[in-house]
């Protein structure tokens, strides 16, 4: 596969993965990290991105490794993304279900904890379904 074909394929894959019609929960960080995946999909070399940030290509490579390893700062991530004409979108997404599902699960857990504490203190309240 030649370089242009590989770049086109990477771009197509990223575009489909970032399609707003897809569930955000389905988006997975590429194994090598977003910075490297986007840089390669855009056909940008380490040298070009480095020049835009007035850094060395080695520094950009290290930032890509840092992002892939989960240790990059948001400030660094935003700087490199900006040099590639991108912006960082930061969000917390439930692993499963919705935020409402998580909130309801949290309330249920808190209620069980209170009921357990009250039963330990001999103050248990019968559930309505057990009442006559």
List keywords for this structure.
6 helices; 2 domains; 132 residues; 0% strand
Shape: elongated
Question: Main β-sheet: number of strands, strand sense, barrel status?
Answer: none
Helical stretch count? 6
From the N-terminal CA to the C-terminal CA, the straight-line distance is 74 Å
The count of β-strands is 0
Helix content range: 55-70%
What fraction of residues sit in β-strands?
under 5%
Which sequence of SSEs, written as H and E, runs from N to C? HHHHHH
How many distinct domains?
2
Radius of gyration equals 24 Å
Secondary-structure-based class equals mainly alpha
Mean pLDDT score: 84
Poorly predicted segments: none
What would your notes on this structure say?
This protein is mainly α. It is 57% helix and 0% strand. The protein is built from 6 helices and no strands. The chain is elongated, with a radius of gyration of 24 Å. The termini are far apart. The model has no long low-confidence stretch (mean pLDDT 84).
């Amino acid at each position: 596969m030649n370089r242009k074909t590989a770049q086109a394929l990477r771009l197509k894959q990223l575009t489909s993965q970032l399609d707003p019609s897809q569930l955000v929960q389905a988006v997975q960080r590429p194994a090598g990290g977003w910075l490297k995946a986007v840089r390669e999909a855009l056909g940008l070399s380490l040298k070009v991105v480095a020049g835009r940030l007035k850094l060395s290509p080695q520094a950009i490579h290290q930032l890509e490794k840092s992002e892939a390893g989960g240790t990059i700062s948001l400030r660094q991530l935003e700087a490199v993304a900006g040099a590639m004409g991108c912006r960082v979108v930061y969000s917390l997404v439930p692993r499963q279900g919705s935020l409402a599902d998580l909130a309801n699960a949290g309330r249920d857990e808190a209620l069980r904890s209170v009921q357990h504490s009250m039963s330990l203190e001999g103050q248990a309240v019968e559930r309505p379904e057990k009442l006559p």
